[in-house]
Structure formats: C-alpha cells, structure tokens
Design brief:
Layout lengths: L1 H25 L1 H4 L5 H16 L3 E6 L5 E6 L2 E2 L2 H12 L7 E4 L3 E10 L6 E7 L7 H54 L6 H28 L17
Antiparallel strand pairs: 1-2, 1-6, 2-3, 4-5, 5-6
Helix pairs in contact: 1-3, 1-5, 3-5, 5-6
C-alpha cells in the first residue's frame, strides 16, 4: 500500500508545483506593461527559467533577421555559441527525450510553438532531470502562448506610441503656418475689392485651425497630458 500512496503524493506535489509555476507565468504580461519590445524580450527571457524551473530556455522568433536568444543556468548564451546550441537542440533526442548539449551537458527538453505572426516561433525548455510529460508539457505550452501575447502586446503599444508622437508632431507642423495665413487674411480685409475672397479664405482657414486643434487635443489625451472629466454639457451649436 505504501507505493501507491507515495505515487499519489508525488502526483499532488507535481500538480502543486505546476499551479505555482502557472501563477508565475501569468505575472509576465504585467511585468512588461509600458516596456518596449526589446525590454519585454529581456524580461521574458530572464523570467522563464525561474517560472518553468528549468536550466535552459531557448527562444526563437520569426523576423528579418529572426531573433534567437538562450539562457543556460541563469546566464545568457553568447551569439557565437548559439549555432552549436541550436544544432544540439535540433538533433534527434534519445529514447528518453534527452539532448546532449555542448560541454556534454545532458538535458531533458520540451518544445512548443510560439504563436506569433504568420510564421510561429520556437520555445525549448530543458532540465537536468526528466520533465513530467503532463504538467511540464502544459507549462511549456502555456509559456509559449504567454510569450507570444506579451511580445505582441509590447509591439502594439510601441506602434501606438509612435503613432501618437507622429500625430502630435503633425499637429504642431500644421499649426505653425496657420498664424501667418490668418494675419494675411486680416490684412486683406483692408481692401474692400477682395472682401468676398477674403471671407472665403478666412472661413476655411479658421475651420482648418479648429481641425488642427482637435488633432492636438487627441494627441494630448493619448499621451496623458489631458484628463477627461465626464459631465453634462450644453448641446448648443458652435458658430
């Protein structure tokens, strides 16, 4: 009777560790809020060995050129050694699923596809002891999905920030020539012979100025320089 009890206790222990590791993985996106894609990549890569309780993490993402990173026993693998490591990870594993890495290190590895973009990436996690095919496989797959979500979110936010900066710059560049145009319109008002033309120019110039002001307001709101307050407002038509 003792053997089944020990087996059950080991299974409960594996599930407990799996739950703790999943909680650590779920904290990754919040750690990367407001970070650039490069900073998010660094945070993710350095956090995965602890979250997955493994000695090796290899992450490859598609792109031009593709990105490749690896952490081995808490240290970043130099680019010069990456090719040798990737070749070992790509080789056929033995019947136990172990890979012999450079330096004769033998690690048991699980691999998962990182669903990012049209061409998925690759996440490999390795440990000096055999990985549990149930809990550890779930963890590696969950980690791959979280990596994709975190990095894609960082890219979207970075693109939105660049768009806001562009709109703010465009608004200021459009605003600059409006002042001399309005001054010229006021000077034209001194000549009655061009009163009709002056009115057309002034009306459309002031309309353009309002549009530019709205554009600048949008950039101020998105950049956090204006705080919106909800309240009742008059519906009178603006002249």
């Amino acid at each position: 009777m003792r053997a089944p009890r020990n087996s059950a206790n080991e299974q409960v222990g594996r599930l407990d560790r799996c739950i703790r590791d999943l909680a650590a993985l779920n904290a990754l996106p919040s750690m990367c809020i407001g970070r650039s894609p490069e900073e998010a990549m660094t945070i993710v890569l350095e956090a995965l060995p602890t979250a997955l309780n493994c000695q090796l993490v290899y992450l490859a993402l598609p792109g031009a050129p593709p990105q490749r990173h690896a952490m081995l026993r808490g240290s970043r693998v130099p680019d010069a050694d990456l090719d040798e490591l990737v070749a070992a990870l790509s080789a056929d594993a033995d019947h136990e699923g172990a890979r012999v890495l450079p330096g004769d290190d033998k690690l048991w590895c699980f691999e998962a596809s990182v669903p990012i973009g049209a061409a998925p990436g690759r996440l490999v996690a390795g440990r000096a002891s055999p990985l549990d095919p149930r809990t550890d496989r779930v963890l590696v797959r969950s980690a791959a999905n979280l990596v994709a979500t975190t990095l894609e979110t960082a890219r979207v936010l970075a693109n939105a920030h660049r768009k806001d900066e562009f709109l703010a710059m465009l608004g200021h560049e459009l605003r600059n020539p409006l002042a001399p145009i309005l001054t010229a319109v006021e000077l034209l008002a001194r000549h009655p012979s061009v009163a009709r033309e002056q009115g057309v120019i002034e009306r459309h110039t002031r309309h353009l100025a309002r549009l530019v002001d709205d554009l600048l307001d949008i950039s101020r709101v998105t950049s956090g320089h204006i705080e919106l307050q909800i309240g009742r407002a008059s519906c009178r038509e603006r002249v």
